């Protein structure tokens, strides 16, 4: 996973996440959209006129005063929690 | 080049002068044997 | 965000399972499905060194068949890219089976012993040594551990009235799993909230609710997963590894964002 920031302002971020595909990006986007301080989040694996770019580009917009990088880090933690919680629920389902 | 005669099953060495013919039985059908080397194949 | 996941099994065997998972977003359900197919590595034969092949098939064709033989994969003991050497030696007349493959490591062996590789006639012989490599399903289908993985929505069937008395009732086919919501109208023992596989009533709602008008709705945030592995590991391993792979990637992202 290689990260490359393309654009960054106080409330907006465009970042390339090398080596990932829909599997992870869609889960991450879903997590971002459930964060209150994030007003918009999307990703594109093959942006138009990208000259053959295939690594996904994630775009995030946040409310003022919230650094989009912090929002991204929080979403990453959220996905980890989600994964752990699902594993616990699955194990509980086995024991039930 | 090593071949095998399809009629008498003997190993045949061909050179550039003898033409395609088994020197033992005169048969003109010779089979190329698989190389004894180990062949490595990648599964794709 | 607080997660409230719930998992309930409908069937659970070593290699196949069906379970209802609640509290998931569609994004997460699809992420788990995709991870099961592409991101849980399995061992698979990758390079074959043919010492002798006098069978009727080319080396490459036999190589392809060998690649598709599932090998047991204890993921705790190996890293992706690790190699295990296997070998086979069969003289005709006989059929070479996956079970004839000898492995250098007892933990990595063919998951099934009865997969035919090729039938050998009198005088034919197959001998090779091969490297099995732990690789990912996204790189080659032979490395897919999950072979029939999918999900559909859990559905709730509600009885909304009686069917017209003199109407011929058409079959009302529904496949998947339903959540019982009209137990009083169902045939046999039933309780509201039961999870019922549609096979149990011939996938036909008119069999379960005869003479009734029914409506079918998707239950939000509930997914019926159907998971089958190729025998490399059991279903529990596949699911937990797939979910863990999502978590690992999130951890890596968090770490790199912090820099």
TrEMBL record, chain A:
Lineage: Archaea, Methanobacteriati, Methanobacteriota, Stenosarchaea group, Halobacteria
CDD domains assigned: RNAP_L (cd06927)
Reaction(s) the record says it catalyses: RNA(n) + a ribonucleoside 5'-triphosphate = RNA(n+1) + diphosphate
InterPro entries: RBP11-like, RBP11-like_dimer, RNA_pol_Rpb11_13-16kDa_CS, Rpo11-like
GO cellular component: cytoplasm; DNA-directed RNA polymerase complex
This protein's UniProt keywords: Cytoplasm, DNA-directed RNA polymerase, Nucleotidyltransferase, Transcription, Transferase
Annotated ranges, domain DNA-directed RNA polymerase RBP11-like dimerisation: 12-88
Biological process (GO), any one: DNA-templated transcription
NCBIfam families in the record: PRK01146.1-5
Enzyme Commission code: 2.7.7.6
Name of the molecule in the record: DNA-directed RNA polymerase subunit Rpo11
The protein's assembly and partners: Part of the RNA polymerase complex.
Tree of life domain: Archaea
Free-text function comment from the UniProt entry: DNA-dependent RNA polymerase (RNAP) catalyzes the transcription of DNA into RNA using the four ribonucleoside triphosphates as substrates.
Enzyme class of the recorded protein, top EC level: transferase
Similarity-based family: Belongs to the archaeal Rpo11/eukaryotic RPB11/RPC19 RNA polymerase subunit family.
Any one Pfam family match given in the protein's UniProt record, by short name: RNA_pol_L_2
Single Gene Ontology MF annotation: protein dimerization activity
Major subcellular location class: cytoplasm
Localization in the cell: Cytoplasm
TrEMBL record, chain B:
Keywords, ordered alphabetically: Cytoplasm, DNA-directed RNA polymerase, Metal-binding, Nucleotidyltransferase, Transcription, Transferase, Zinc
Reactions accelerated catalytically: RNA(n) + a ribonucleoside 5'-triphosphate = RNA(n+1) + diphosphate
Domain of life where this protein originates: Archaea
InterPro entries in UniProt: RNAP_P/RPABC4 (IPR006591), RPABC4/Spt4 (IPR029040), Rpo12 (IPR023464)
EC number: 2.7.7.6
Matches recorded under Gene3D superfamilies: RNA polymerase ii, chain L
Family annotation (Pfam families): Zn_ribbon_RPAB4
Biological processes per GO annotation: DNA-templated transcription
Single annotated GO MF: DNA-directed RNA polymerase activity
One GO term describing the cellular component: DNA-directed RNA polymerase complex
Co-factor binding comment: Binds 1 zinc ion.
Localization per Swiss-Prot or TrEMBL: Cytoplasm
Cofactor(s) the protein requires to work: Zn(2+)
Residues at which Zn(2+) binds: 8, 22, 25
Protein family according to the UniProt entry: Belongs to the archaeal Rpo12/eukaryotic RPC10 RNA polymerase subunit family.
Assembly, per entry: Part of the RNA polymerase complex.
The protein's role, per its UniProt record: DNA-dependent RNA polymerase (RNAP) catalyzes the transcription of DNA into RNA using the four ribonucleoside triphosphates as substrates.
Database matches in NCBIfam families: PRK00398.1-3
Entry protein name: DNA-directed RNA polymerase subunit Rpo12
Gene encoding the protein: rpo12
UniProtKB/TrEMBL annotation, chain C:
Keyword Cytoplasm: yes
GO molecular function: DNA binding; DNA-directed RNA polymerase activity; protein dimerization activity
GO biological process: one example: DNA-templated transcription
Enzyme class: transferase
InterPro entries xref list: DNA-dir_RNA_pol_30-40kDasu_CS, DNA-dir_RNA_pol_insert, DNA-dir_RNA_pol_RpoA/D/Rpb3, RBP11-like, RNAP_Rpo3/Rpb3/RPAC1, RNApol_insert_sf, Rpo3/RPB3_RNA_Pol_subunit
The keyword Transmembrane appears for this protein: no
Domain (DNA-directed RNA polymerase RpoA/D/Rpb3-type) ranges: 16-256
Swiss-Prot/TrEMBL catalytic activity: RNA(n) + a ribonucleoside 5'-triphosphate = RNA(n+1) + diphosphate
GO cellular component, one term: cytoplasm
Coiled coil feature spans: none
Keywords of the record: Cytoplasm, DNA-directed RNA polymerase, Nucleotidyltransferase, Transcription, Transferase
SUPFAM superfamilies per the UniProt record, alphabetical: Insert subdomain of RNA polymerase alpha subunit, RBP11-like subunits of RNA polymerase
Pfam families named in the record: RNA_pol_A_bac (PF01000), RNA_pol_L (PF01193)
Annotated PROSITE patterns: RNA_POL_D_30KD (PS00446)
E.C. no: 2.7.7.6
Subcellular location: Cytoplasm
Record's function text: DNA-dependent RNA polymerase (RNAP) catalyzes the transcription of DNA into RNA using the four ribonucleoside triphosphates as substrates.
Family, as annotated: Belongs to the archaeal Rpo3/eukaryotic RPB3 RNA polymerase subunit family.
PANTHER family: DNA-DIRECTED RNA POLYMERASE, DNA-DIRECTED RNA POLYMERASE II SUBUNIT RPB3
Quaternary structure, from the entry: Part of the RNA polymerase complex.
UniProt-recorded name of the protein: DNA-directed RNA polymerase subunit Rpo3
């Amino acid at each position: 996973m290689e990260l490359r920031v393309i654009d960054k302002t106080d409330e907006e971020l465009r970042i390339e996440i090398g080596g990932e595909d829909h599997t992870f990006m869609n889960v991450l986007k879903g997590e971002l959209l459930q964060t209150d301080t994030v007003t918009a989040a999307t990703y594109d694996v093959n942006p138009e006129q990208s000259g053959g770019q295939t690594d996904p580009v994630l775009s995030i917009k946040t409310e003022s005063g919230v650094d989009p990088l912090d929002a991204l880090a929080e979403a990453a933690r959220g996905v980890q929690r989600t994964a752990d919680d699902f594993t616990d629920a699955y194990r509980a389902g086995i024991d039930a | 080049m090593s071949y095998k005669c399809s009629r008498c099953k003997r190993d045949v060495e061909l050179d550039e002068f003898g033409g395609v013919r088994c020197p033992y039985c005169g048969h003109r059908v010779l089979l190329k044997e698989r190389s004894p080397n180990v062949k490595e194949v990648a599964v794709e | 965000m607080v997660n409230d996941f719930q998992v309930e099994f409908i069937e659970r065997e070593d290699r196949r399972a069906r379970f209802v998972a609640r509290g998931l977003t569609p994004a997460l359900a699809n992420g788990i499905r995709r991870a099961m197919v592409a991101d849980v590595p399995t061992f698979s034969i990758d390079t074959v060194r043919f010492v002798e092949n006098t069978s009727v098939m080319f080396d490459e064709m036999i190589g392809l068949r060998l690649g598709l033989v599932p090998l047991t994969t204890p993921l705790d003991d190996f890293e992706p890219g690790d190699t295990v050497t296997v070998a086979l030696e069969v003289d005709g007349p006989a059929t070479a089976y996956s079970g004839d493959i000898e492995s250098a490591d007892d933990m990595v062996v063919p998951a099934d012993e009865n997969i035919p590789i090729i039938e050998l006639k009198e005088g034919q012989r197959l001998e090779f040594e091969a490297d099995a490599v732990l690789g990912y399903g996204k790189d080659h289908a032979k490395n897919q551990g999950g072979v029939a993985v999918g999900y559909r929505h859990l559905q709730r069937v509600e009885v909304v009235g009686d069917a017209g008395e003199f109407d011929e009732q058409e079959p009302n086919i529904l496949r998947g799993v339903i959540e019982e919501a009209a137990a009083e109208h169902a045939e046999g023992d039933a309780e509201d909230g039961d999870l019922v596989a549609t096979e149990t009533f011939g996938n036909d709602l008119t069999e379960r609710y005869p003479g009734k008008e029914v409506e079918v709705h998707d239950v939000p945030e509930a997914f019926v997963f159907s998971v089958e592995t190729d025998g490399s590991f059991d279903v529990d391993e596949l699911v937990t590894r797939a979910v863990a792979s999502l978590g690992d990637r999130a951890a890596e992202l968090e770490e790199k964002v912090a820099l």
